[in-house]
Design brief:
Chains A, B, C, D, E, F: One of its GO terms (biological process) is riboflavin biosynthetic process. The structure is a homohexamer of 238-residue chains. Chain A is mainly alpha-helical. The first copy, chain A, has a single domain, classed as Rossmann fold. Chain A is built from eight helices and five strands. In chain A, helix 2 packs across helix 8, helix 3 packs across helix 4 and helix 5 runs antiparallel to helix 8.
């Protein structure tokens, strides 16, 4: 149930029944030949499909995240840590004011992991809410399914290549990309990292057959749904 | 042309041809019986439809804005001024890094007007970009068209009621809402403001016939398109 | 009644009787041949004259505001948005601690309008105070009086030219200045804006006869006085 | 020469001749029976009188400073350290942009001393300006003159009691106030500090004869004038 | 080579030869019966022992980190994310000013991982330095050695129990602690987390024999030394 | 009693008995031929030796402070004011959460004095704690003892030269350094200040005989111990 399909009276009724909600977060950044919005599209979609049968509201996706290492690639947008933290603080304060006290952040981008630390900080500050960060693509079952399909599932390779993240005008290259020197990339400035990394894929096949891709997706949706279901602590309504 | 339909190579080619881009910004807040996301939906949509024939890229909409006065209505999310400013600073820094130096912010929410002041500040700081804030709903031609249709076009009334912002399960009330005491509302705390304001419509008809509504929309799209076209100053590529 | 004419015991007695106070805010920025402090002088003076017969205390004027677009003119001082917001937050917190819970901000400078948004934010945060922003020069009656005197009343023209904002050594030019291209100015960097704008007057006569000017001033004082009087909500003493 | 008596062309000419300027800073806080604005009045006045014969411009006084320990006294306004620092950063950046690179901050309030540390930080950051903090009342000659008149010259006693800081309706008590337990006050919360401190005078006579007071003032003006004169380092125009 | 054993002339000579340096970071937080400073002690010590034969300078350890989830345990100190980020920004700016442009942060506490994201951000901002985060206890070889000794090596259990982190007056309990419900702990407020977690050990033996512990330590020192050695990118001296 | 020698149960018992604690703070900066860490070493050591017989816990020293004026000397680390303030805010909030409400900050560096202003601000904000700043080297008795030994006791001269701050490889120069022009240094940029100041000693003998030095140290320890003892206000446990 998307917040965009609700008005304020709907939310008032909903939160009286169930205090859970979902907040997806992505990143606009290079994904080789794929859409710059892969992480926005996938985090929003996995949250929506997971939440739907549960009737838990999903807030609009935060499209921008932290990705300084890709700033040499045109189109990429990166936030400073303090900015993303401020944004999350204010949104979570608003969700809590509405009465949502069990909040699942569905994250689609590895660079956003500091959001998990913020969640712990806010739980300590407020003392009456629970916030959990769900990195949908590397939750245990989804990561296992990825490895089952191909040993290398990583940034901008087949693992993020779904019918809805591909661009018709930019088909995936054939074959597999050799693994770049990731240790060198991590220690390099963005311009140098781009020189090493080339198109942006972190190695492995650019695409696998759709049957496998959709199987991975289904696992991701189911595991995200389980995360929405719990575990949640008992909390008093504030 | 949505950024979500582009990869980084597309943007690299585009910015070499044309340094304009569009950034829509909305708000998640009460809109009476309409979607909580009216301002998100409309700012994204008007930007997309306006930009399409021009081939100017549209970045993902920032869904959250400043709306402290509606915080007594469930579902509403508000950002502190400093947070929205930080978010805009970082996004604009990223757009500039990519090479976009003529940026139109298409705003769908009156409470976000401080973004205009920030644009002026960034233009002074950088000295090599132009940023303009376009409040699509109250730009001169669109505001005139609104007055032509009905003397009262305001928050959550017919002026924001389009086929894509209505909820099937929550039809508009019949008739016209008497104008609430806006001076009292502005001086009141959110809880008191809600008591005065009731469902959230600022007065006037909840809905007009679709022909009139779509005529208003068409004016808004055209005026936004003209704003994308200019005026823009001559700027050296940084 | 100026705070500078009171000691702490005076304020203690005053706030027990009446919880209203006034905070003027200006800007140090180019005003063509007029004083750099036009907005400081006028906001302080209009607040003082308006408050005097009501016995409502007026705090010292904040002389610095947001004016990034004039930074190419020597002498101009501009604050970042976050700075002005922090300043207002702290001052208002102090006024509230003293017991003032109905605060009228008398603003003399268009660039400071984000202060209004902050007022709304603080009213939502505290829940026990009322803050209103009064832009004295464009309140309805004062703006109507301006149009009555001359169709163009704007920055640094006759509308801000009073006996107390003129400099003896720098008389106003004769005649009327043609309106500059304001759309181009708004989209330009400060250096380019100065090239277009020249002396800094936004167009129209530099000066009118004193009788008209003082009539405008009288309207401004009376409308500001009415704003101090209300409307104010009922508020419990915190 | 007050900035309020100058327009932007005046400043442009002045800074071409001489890159010094003066920025006074005060505090609105309890001063026993004296005006709440003692530190605003004195810092502005001493700066003005000192600068006048030198023709060095004096910017409008910043009326608000850091005084958390007096917050239990009505009328007092205090800024957080970060706020005052942000304000000073932005103002100094603006002065530097205009071309002023030798800036004397004339301070009238002990609680503002962190401004001196900020000056050092900005000098290190910019590398092309000089900023000096002048605490006018405890500069060596003025402090010596104070001791010469009476061994105890301190907050809100005779040392701050001038014809222009007195209130006609609130004459000074006769005699001398016994010194309160300052160590206890410094370790106490504001409420407790007020209980110990009573009217707010830190001890000693509330007033001395005007001849002595004006002699002290004259010393303060002269020593402030000497501080405006130098020493200043050689600096390249930026 | 500790910075405390160097003066500024020593550093000037050193940085002319080798631009690497090491910055350890810890946390003051509950570690069951062990010292509250386990993460401070170990990160400083592993950095020192690793750097010594290489002659690379080690800066004083930052003793405080992010640990909001342990705030119900007395003695624990936690920083907000923004605070730790500000601290790291300023220290790294200072190291870079001195000429150190290859900086290894040796981290002893899992909660500090946002420091890695900051390093990436600073590398993008500066474009002329390399910053790497080394979590000494879970680097690949050290983590493998841990698993070799006992399948559960975790917070406050044997893995952090060394002769220099034990307290003579508080011997380790005998035996193994059953694994607590970590999913429940992560979703809980600090008070509730303490109730579940008890003494603070995350499960497994409180202590193993010293031979095994010191073997783990030796692996940690060697792997940290290897991290100081590289890989580092080629960087121009700024 | 060092916090590093305590576990959380120890602190829980301690704070039930006595709510005092000590927080030392230093600076990493040039000290001529002495260790870059003089202020870290001394503030930690004086706090430890002073607290030991009282059984009051001493938290780990904050090694980094504010020293922008020495940034032209290699190895120096300086924090912005806002950073040090944020750090102190968070640490003090944590100490207060544990139950420590009488906090002595033992400072070893003159540039950190803004910490005293912050303490006053936090006391006003919380209303239930007492924070005192103790500048150990210029407390009255210690400063008097310094003057007794030699009229000039200042930065990096004999006054900071103890067996534990000397470096074996860098003996002190013989004789006395002529006093540099401190007024010129304070008004200068860091690079220029280094040119004037040379090795970094602010004048006077680089070293005196150990008997005198240790006598000074003993006075500093005793005066710091007295400061830990009080005066402290009566405070309710929060």
């Amino acid at each position: 149930m998307m917040i965009s399909d609700m008005n304020w009276m709907d939310v008032e009724r909903q939160v009286a029944r169930d205090t859970r909600c979902v907040l997806p977060i992505g990143s606009v950044e290079q994904h080789a030949q794929l859409s710059l919005c892969v992480d926005v599209i996938n985090s929003e979609r996995v949250a929506r499909e997971a939440a739907e049968p549960l009737g838990v509201p999903v807030y609009p996706v935060i499209p921008y995240g932290m990705t300084p290492y890709f700033t040499a690639y045109p189109g990429t947008v990166t936030l400073r840590i303090e900015t993303l933290m401020a944004l999350m603080r204010d949104i979570i304060a608003s969700l809590r004011r509405t009465g949502f006290n069990r909040i699942l952040i569905v994250n689609g981008h590895g660079g956003n992991s500091a959001v998990g630390a913020l969640g712990q900080e806010l739980m300590a500050d407020y003392g009456d809410i629970s916030i959990r960060l769900h990195n949908w693509w590397n939750a245990p079952l989804t990561a296992a399914k990825t490895r089952e399909i191909h040993p290398i599932g990583t940034h901008a390779n087949w693992m993020e290549n779904f019918p809805w993240t591909r661009l018709a005008h930019a088909p995936a290259p054939e074959g597999e990309k050799p693994a770049p020197d990731m240790a060198a990339i991590r220690a390099a400035t963005p311009q140098k990292a781009r020189e090493i990394l080339g198109d942006g894929n972190f190695g492995g096949p650019w695409q696998v057959d759709d049957e496998a891709a959709l199987e991975l997706w289904k696992t991701g949706v189911e595991e995200t749904r389980a995360a929405i279901e719990g575990p949640w602590p008992e909390l008093e309504r504030s």
